[in-house]
Task: structure prediction
Amino acid sequence: VTVNNGTITAGSNAGAIAGENKGTITSVVVTTGDQSSLEVKTIESTKGTYSAGGVVGQNFASSKIDDVTVSKNVKITSNVSAYLGGVAGYNEGYIGRVLINVNKTGYGVITSAKAFVGGIAGYSTGGIFSAYVKSATISASTSDSDSCAGGIAGAVHAAAKESVDVAVVEDVYISAYYAGGIAAKLNTTYT
Result:
């Protein structure tokens, strides 16, 4: 999928492929032209839960995202408290073999004022495997104690069999009240 100058806006879950995934997404590349951009964002609505990602807003339990690349000038933002990720804002399922390789100046930004923000997922209770995040800016509020940013995920709360495995973070700027190279908050097994 190549997007030339687009904006995807939702009052709940927003993604370049789908707002919500309850199935399988595989072998997908989300990219832009060299001089164009894509912004995926959530805005305040009566829904109450907001998530945005380069592929999907929310990846449900028993759902799968595999062999996916998000590259070039992609920006994921929110003006409300949200879950934001390079692949999925909120992950309950499986995310594997993913590459986030974006332009960190101007676009290539995953940011929100108060949020869980991550290079792959903002918040994950599922599995993240073989993940590579390169050249991104991942940020949330540095003064709000509810804000977390991580190179792979803002926060990971998963069973030992569903954790973060084989993760690489390279040339990434991360900032938030809680920040970490892999995750700001990790309540699982990391190998």
In short: The mean pLDDT is 86. The two ends are 32 Å apart (CA to CA). The chain is about 0% helix and 60% strand.
